[in-house]
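# nightly structure sweep
# worker-07 picked up a monomer target from the shared queue
# config: single-sequence mode, recycle default, output format = structure tokens
# input follows
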Amino acid sequence: MNARGFSLVEALVGIIVLAIGLLSLAAAASLGLTQMTRARQDMQYFADVQQEMDSLVNRGWGKVSSGSTTIRGRQMTWTVTTLSPNSQVLKVAVRRRGYQNINKWTSDTLVVYLAKGTPGS
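# output follows
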């Protein structure tokens, strides 16, 4: 007998392979969206921290005092310590939510040294 076409088993195997492929694509798209969202949040976080650091550094030596602020729900605190008559250290601590557990907070610390400029500079 000369049979043509597909058997039911072949059709089911084809549908299963197609379904697995589509589910894999959906999972990859979901992961990509999650990573893009995380990257956007990181970029905004680092931009906010950089803006605040630049603001503090631009005040200059002897004009920065310890303080704190909140930007987009992130708490930032900074302390200024005089190391010598010509130098200070500025430490900025920033808190942000963790990646794996959003109920857990992570703290980043940035350190900048300020030097007293020479007269006339």
